[in-house]
Structures are given as C-alpha cells and as structure tokens.
Write a structure and sequence with these properties.
Layout (H helix, E strand, L loop, with lengths): L1 H33 L12 E7 L11 H15 L3 E7 L9 H10 L8 E4 L5 H10 L5 E6 L4 H10 L3 E6 L8 H22 L22
Helix pairs in contact: 1-5, 1-6, 4-5
C-alpha cells in the first residue's frame, strides 16, 4: 500500500514539475515571439485601427485609470493619423455593466469623429476581442493598445489569428495592483496559448461582418 501511495505521489510530483516548466516555456515563447511587434508610439506603422481593450468601468459610468490610459494612447494614435479608426472592445454582456459605451463617451470628449469609432460589445476577454476583430470587423492590420504586462498575449493571439498586429503600451501611471495583474497574466498566457493553438473555440457571439472602412455609428447602441 505504501509503495502504491509513493508511486502516485511521485507521478503527481512529475506532472507538477512538467506543468511548471511548460508554463514558463509558454510565457517565454509568447514574450519572445511578440518582442519585435511591440513598439513605441512613434515607431508603429500606419494601420487600419487602434484596437483598445476594455478594462474596469465604475458604477457611475466613469472609466478606471487603467482604461483611461489605454484610451488616451488610442486617441494619440488617431490624432497622429497613425490609425484611421478606433476599435473599442470590451464587456457589454449585461445592461448594468457597459465598458464600450463608457469608452466611447470618453473618447468623444476629445473631439474624435464618431464615424471613426467602432464598438465591439462582445469583447469579453482578450481571445474573443482578437477573434472578433478578425472575423467580425475583418481587420488585417491593427495596433493593439493596452498595458505592457498584457500586450504580449494580445499581440500573440492576434498574429496567430492572422492579423498583422503591433502593440503600443499604455503605462502612463503606476497601478497599485500591478503585481497581482502580472501574476494573473502568467496563467492567462498559458490558457490562451492552448486556446489559439489547439482548441480554437469560436467566441460566444460573432454576427454580421462590420466594415472597418465604413461608418462606426452602425455599432452604437
């Protein structure tokens, strides 16, 4: 009986070690694969749109500091004419929680032409935002805007899905929970590596194709 328990323990320990090693290798792969595509605001090539990824929105409808920083970089790219459109992707799965319209209201304060603003209401996570950018909005070339801890995963997924994607970091401030975000991101990279390379699930929602060269008002609620 003791020998059997010992064998099970050794087997579980081997699996644990292999899992830890695999996790580090996946993280290393994603970071090295995307390094050349993550550039500064002045280095990124002209692209169809800036894909700004959603984040926390408060109950009063105001965007959180981490999301405001992402939107500010998206606005900078638009004003520099590096991109023609802003694609704002976030969680609007419930009436009482709406990231995308809060994002839209924020950028409209900066005199962005509302025809150049596209809303993706079903960007519930990074994988779904990238998948929908490719399949719903038919994006060929994008600049992804998010914080630096999140960029490698976002750019990796986009490129694996066939988008000519680049990334610009939006780290304009210190974020009190940054260590927590980084720890979660380590595991999220492993999850999305499996999704985009092996499982390849479709998002919860797809829908009709929306032309990124057209009028973004068709995406407004």
């Amino acid at each position: 009986m003791r020998k059997h328990i010992k064998k099970v323990f050794i087997f579980c320990l081997i699996l644990l070690v292999l899992g830890v090693i695999s996790s580090f290798l996946i993280n290393y792969r994603i970071q090295t694969f995307t390094r050349e595509y993550i550039l500064s605001l002045d280095e990124v090539p002209e692209s169809q749109a800036a894909l700004v990824l959603g984040a926390l929105v408060y109950e009063n409808g105001n965007v959180s500091p981490i999301l405001a920083d992402r939107l500010d970089v998206g606005i900078e790219l638009y004003n520099k004419k590096t991109v023609d459109k802003l694609l704002l992707s976030g969680d609007h799965g419930q009436k009482e929680y709406d990231e995308v319209n809060a994002m839209k209201n924020y950028v409209l304060l900066y005199d962005i032409d509302d025809k150049d603003i596209f809303l993706d209401h079903a960007g519930f996570n990074t994988y779904q935002s990238m998948y929908r950018a490719k399949e719903v909005f038919e994006a060929d070339k994008l600049i992804i805007v998010t914080q630096s801890f999140h960029l490698p995963r976002a750019v990796y997924i986009a490129r694996k899905l066939g988008i000519d994607a680049y990334g610009v970091a939006s780290d304009k401030h210190y974020y009190p929970k940054i260590n927590q975000y980084k720890q979660r991101e380590f595991l999220a990279r492993c999850k999305d590596f499996i999704l985009v390379n092996f499982l390849k699930p479709k998002p919860k929602y797809l829908g009709e194709v929306i032309d990124l060269t057209g009028n973004g008002q068709v995406t407004f609620d």
